[in-house]
Amino acid sequence: MNVEKNRHRPRHLEEQHRPLRVLITTDWWEPVVNGVVASVQTLRRELIALGCDVRVLTLSQGIRPHHEPGVYRIGSVSASLVYERARIGMPSSRRVLKDILGWRPDVVHSQAEFSTYVWARRIARTLSVPLVHTYHTIYEDYTHYYSPSRTMGRKVVESFSRRALSAADAVIVPTAKVARLLDSYGVDRPLHVVPTGLDLNKFRPARSAEELEDARALRESLGIDARQRVLVSVSRLAKEKNLDEVLEMVAAADRPDTVLVLVGDGPHRPELEARAEALGIAHRVRFTGVVEPAEVQRWYRVGDVFVSASRSETQGLTFIEAMASGLPLLARRDPSLENVILEGRTGWQYEGSAQFAAQLDRLLGEPMRREQMAVAALEHAHATFGAQEFGRQALSVYQQARARRSPQIIRHELVAA
Predict the structure, then answer these.
(1) Per the confidence metrics, is the pTM higher than 0.90?
(2) Nearest CA to 395 among 140, 47, 90?
(3) Which of 102, 213, 229, 352 is the most buried (most CB within 10 A)?
């Protein structure tokens, strides 16, 4: 009798008695390592901890689709000629689509504007559920990959972003900088600033004897003397990361007691090596090459200061990782860092070689101040960028998007009945 009643219970009443179902779609997923993957993994974990039923739709590393627990992979082909490790999804994965539609997610949360976004829009439209989108990338900083003109590239990005996001019920951005940018593009969807959270338990200063010895051994493996001070940068070695400027700042600061460690690899490495040679600082620059994700936290611990000149960040997850590892920050001034770098407390932003040199001298010449800033950076990272708050805020956006759609959904179901 109860089974028969449940069979005829209106769908929207059934949905009130089960976990919220969230489908996350992303072009980037394991085994790729980047900020988007880290963000999506953290979001998935925190939503599950909040009681949601979460599945991921992403791209396979080959042309065959396959399904693993909680993750659908649609077939794809390489697009590495456009961008390293990028892939384009194949349209023919009917079994995957049928399975997702049968599962009936309550919210679709897309994390990329290309292959899987097409799927996200189709699924959300078919089920009449909200489409929430996170805008991760400032594409106009990548115009050198697809346009000889930055002005023309920006116009293409404006038009593309406006058109793509018009289908979204809500757009999540990691910083007010990105919200202002989308507003300037003419994007008229509801914008929500939700800083990306990180699992900060993985990132911490070296404290135990074993961790201290590991940091010493890493420095020794790079030929760094115990008396030298280490400036560390963690990023993909790509043109948009503006690491040429970091080399120029280090050269202009002219501190023979410092070594710059560039953690990571990428297509711009040969140019960076040549630039270091031309600036006469090649003997004070170390390239680690590829570092496995699980090993990255070890490399923060070799540093005394985290440095960056990137202007392509939407939030700068490596800045947060560095702070959680007890490193003060010294970075090119950028609006994306307005809630990350608290001037004189967690680090400084510079606007030229003179400022860079002066602030570096203060950090390295005043050990007590550097230690105080290291503690402040650690505390700020945990207070502001923890993963739990990230999950709670994303869930709040879903609830708001569903509330705005609910009258339409109820009307639709009553008519269907």
Answers:
(1) no
(2) 47
(3) 229
